[in-house]
Structures
1.
Amino acid sequence: MTRSAEISARKAARADLDALVALECATFETDRISRAQWRRHIASDSACVLVAGVRGGVDGAAVVFHRRNSRRARLYSLAVAASARGNGLAKALLAAAEAEAVRRGCEALYLEVGVGNRGAIALYESQGYRRAVRLQGFYEDGTDAWRYTRRLAAP
Ligand SMILES: CC(C)(COP(=O)(O)OP(=O)(O)OC[C@H]1O[C@@H](n2cnc3c(N)ncnc32)[C@H](O)[C@@H]1OP(=O)(O)O)[C@@H](O)C(=O)NCCC(=O)NCCS
């Protein structure tokens, strides 16, 4: 597959629910976001759900949480369908998540990633994220996570 200029991320809508649930089930074995949680996150002011697709579909999604009075946003989830990987979708979603965090006045974005998730770790490090602490037994299956963080530049 070739990288495409057609990729752009947008905010998710209720109409994306089925696609988001399908993507979540296909991507993650544990710690899945349920349909009810997706619905809540899409409607919530403190969450930002972004979707992106190779040709306008929903092949990838990101969820960012914002807390009132906090200058740090948290990238809670990032997933791209196996069939759409390697096209820059995650990069586009990450850039959109960062732009939204800056728009909301945040100075940093942080995230957790499984210590064995080499692809995602390579992605985050290539995008300027720095490794912080190791979180023991972070995931439902007992796996440890690394916390990564990136300072965001003001527009
Ligand atoms: C990790 C994931 C989101 C990457 O999505 P993607 O759309 O394929 O990533 P991109 O095409 O935007 O990649 C951007 C850069 O990240 C790095 N990267 C992404 N996946 C990589 C992999 N498997 N191995 C090495 N580097 C990788 C590369 O530097 C890549 O740039 P390049 O293609 O120019 O070399 C995707 O593989 C995925 O959804 N995995 C399963 C869920 C998951 O692990 N989510 C993260 C949880 S914290």
Note: Residues 9-151 form a domain with the Aminopeptidase fold (CATH 3.40.630.30).
2.
Amino acid sequence: MIPSRRDFVQLSILAGGAVGLGLARRAQADKPGTAKASKPLKILVLGGTGLIGPPMVEYAIARGHEVTLFNRGKTNTHLFPDLEKLEGDRNDDLSALQAEVDAGRLWDAVIDNTASIPRWVTESTALLAEAADFYLYTSSISAYADTLTPSADETAPLGQISPEDEAEVLTTKDITGENYGPLKARCEEEARKAFSDRCCVVRPGLIIGPGDYSDRFTYWPVRIYKGGEVMAPGNPTDPVQFIDCRDLGEWYIRLVENGTTGDFNGVGPRSPMSIAGMLHGIRATVDNEISFTWVEADFLEQHEVQAWMHMTVWVPLVDEYAGFSTSSIDRALAAGLTFRPLADTSVATVEYWNSLPEERRAKPKAGCPPELEAQVLEAWHARNK
Ligand SMILES: NC(=O)c1ccc[n+]([C@@H]2O[C@H](COP(=O)([O-])OP(=O)(O)OC[C@H]3O[C@@H](n4cnc5c(N)ncnc54)[C@H](OP(=O)(O)O)[C@@H]3O)[C@@H](O)[C@H]2O)c1
């Protein structure tokens, strides 16, 4: 089943929504082999304990920067016991931040990972515009108005909130598949308004790797490591894009160090990759008995196998998805985005998955349930006899 774009975004939000289940043994994230930065910076991270936050904070510390976190103190509270943590809620309690600003506190940069509600950005930038030199806002590839144009770059049109919906959408606390993209676009606008030429916006695509609580990419290495006949989706040449949370987080710190401003798509890999390239790339990291059976997109749909949430990372190249997973990363490459090999991501993701409690692993949030996979493979073989 191919979800509509709205459903697709909604599924993505739901999958990413339950932040923070047991990172107790976060897959010993690779320690970045870094030298100290030439100038230590004071960096305020709004968030910092979900998926991209931890590797970005670890890298910042390794580079010699001083990091302060602002969050509610709910997610992965065991992380970074030695860091300064300001506790508050961007919904209604910025008092801890306000107190610091009132006391004359200054930061070289703010990294805003948390906001999908424009008011959050309006309020934090109003508070910090004089107290910080630079604002990096984490948007999303979903901020674009559509996924129709292959290889679209950062100049593609962004989603808009229609004038008649403004009042309702801008006061909402409910992020849905319909409003997520336009809200992210509006958040960007708020950040730019306050920080103008001191602002950087990164639009990540699917973020993957150790610590990913959505289980989307994770499904594939875990399934492939199990071995046997693996159902693979659609046309092997369909494109995929994703970014390892460690590559993204480390790049953020380099953007901050360089004071890089402007808008950037934050996806990978460096060279275009197909779903077959991804599956075989993962397969190459394990030695087991395994085969892939490619099942046509229409057949999957008829058998209620969903693109993206069952057959994760993948969406068939049709109609409204003609430009999906083909975003241009020329600007990001020029601004220093680098990539780990897929093999590294794959192995680290499985290590992370295996570190989770058994009860958590028994309830994956995405991927094709084994019974459904077996049933569809049987039907596919019967049809092709
Ligand atoms: N996952 C994806 O594939 C994907 C793709 C594109 C874009 N994005 C964007 O990436 C960003 C999230 O990345 P991440 O989770 O990896 O970031 P992160 O900085 O690692 O974690 C999110 C942080 O937000 C804090 N937080 C949540 N609600 C809060 C609130 N009401 N007030 C204050 N702090 C709050 C959480 O801590 P507490 O819970 O303790 O408050 C946590 O530290 C989002 O902006 C999302 O739209 C994600």
Note: Residues 14-32 have pLDDT under 50 and may be disordered.
